[in-house]
Amino acid sequence: MLSDDERAGRLANLNELIELIRPAVQSDGGDLVLLSADVESGVVEVQLQGSCSSCAISATTLQAGVERILKERLDWITEVFGGVDEDMDFETSSAMGRGGYTPGF
C-alpha cells in the first residue's frame, strides 16, 4: 500500500513524462492524453488524438513508443493501453499531419 505522498509522486512523474513525449506526437499533428493511471497496480491508459486517428502506425506509436518509454523510465508501470480518438473524421485528421488514413472497420 502506497502512502499519499508516494501516490502523488508517481502521478507527478507520470504527468511530467507524458509532457516530455507530447511534443514528438504533436509535431505530426497529433496529441497524447493521459486518460487514467492506477499508481498502485501500475496500469496506465492513454489516448492518441488529432492526426493520430488517421495514422497507419498509431498502434506502433503506442506500443513501441509510448509504452516502451513509460515502462523504461517509470519502473512501477506494469501495463500501458489505449487507442486513438475515433471521434474525428478522417479528412480532418489527415489534414492535421502526415499520417496515412486507414479505415476503422
What is the makeup of the main sheet? 3 strands, mixed
Mean pLDDT over the full residue set: 82
CATH class: Alpha Beta
Oligomerization: single chain
SSE order in H/E notation? HEEHEH
Number of strands: 3
State Rg.
Answer: 15 Å
Count of helical stretches: 3
Helices and strands, with pairings:
Layout: H1 4-26, E1 30-38, E2 43-50, H2 58-73, E3 79-84, H3 90-96
Parallel strand pairs: 2-3
Antiparallel strand pairs: 1-2
Plain-language structure description:
The protein is of the alpha+beta class and about 100 residues long. It is built from 3 helices and 3 strands. The chain has helices at about 5-25, 60-75, 90-95, and strands at about 30-40, 45-50, 80-85. The longest helix has 23 residues, at about 5-25. Mean pLDDT is about 80; it is low at about 100-105.
Provide a brief overview of the structure:
This protein is of the alpha+beta class.
Q: What characteristics describe this protein?
A:
105 residues; alpha+beta; GMP Synthetase, Chain A, domain 3; 3-stranded mixed beta sheet; 3 helices; 44% helix; 22% strand; elongated; disordered C terminus
